[in-house]
Specification:
Length: about 230
């Protein structure tokens, strides 16, 4: 019996691959101050990270007519400051390069628009390592719904049992769990360990450089199971 194919690895973007929290919070504070003259606590915004921008604003704004102009303000500020403020987390490019060399198909599943996600990937120099980018405009439902995860797998021609999803938010973990993939919680993002653990990930890692070792362990387990 041939060995199992390399695991598919799906990644979230903000807080997982991209160190963009200062950029995100800067856009949030500017937007709410410009339109409402008051800014909620950062944690109120962080709680919605991993879901689409309009959904985050809708959860915090009573006047629904403000959602569209606030979304535009947020995106304009973020676009202006994007390249100077966004960075990769330490070890991201090296780790993804290693996984790519080992034959793992990789894709991005993000609540950002696809063009914005591609801009971040190009800035970090990892766009060529991810074969698919599933943005908020690719599906009708979004994380924590499993649709984006399942859509990514369909694009790659693989089944949930062959995949893992690495994300820093409980919305990522919920989407992955609902899709039937193994979920790996990234503990270096803005969410507390307690918040992430409450979403029930299959695995937790404290550094993205720990991911290849975890994948080797999972691959070995899959190989042993296939021989039984």
């Amino acid at each position: 019996m041939p060995p199992p194919a390399p695991l598919v690895i799906l990644f979230d973007l903000d807080g997982t691959l991209a160190d963009s929290i200062k950029l995100i919070l800067g856009a949030f504070r500017h937007t709410f101050n410009a339109h409402l003259g008051a800014v909620p606590a950062d944690q109120a915004w962080i709680a919605g990270m991993g879901t689409p921008l309009a959904s985050q604003i809708r959860a915090l704004v009573a006047d629904k007519d403000l959602i569209e102009p606030m979304t535009a303000t947020y995106r304009a500020w973020q676009n202006e400051h994007h390249d100077e403020m966004l960075r990769e987390f330490v070890g991201v490019r090296k780790t993804l390069t290693l996984l790519h060399e080992h034959g793992h198909p990789m894709a991005l599943v993000t609540s950002k628009a696809t063009d914005a996600a591609m801009r971040a990937l190009r800035l970090m120099g990892i766009d060529s390592l991810l074969s698919r980018v599933i943005g908020a405009d690719a599906t009708s439902s979004h994380k924590p719904n499993p649709e984006p995860v399942l859509y990514a797998l369909a694009q790659l021609g693989r089944e949930p049992r062959d995949a893992i999803f690495v994300g820093d938010s409980p919305h990522d973990i919920a989407a992955g769990n609902a899709a039937g993939v193994l979920t790996v919680a990234a503990l270096w993002g803005p969410f507390t360990r307690q918040t992430i653990e409450s979403a029930r990930p299959d695995h937790l890692i404290a550094d993205i450089r720990d991911l290849p070792t975890l994948i080797d362990t999972l691959t070995a387990a899959n190989s042993a199971a296939s021989r039984q």
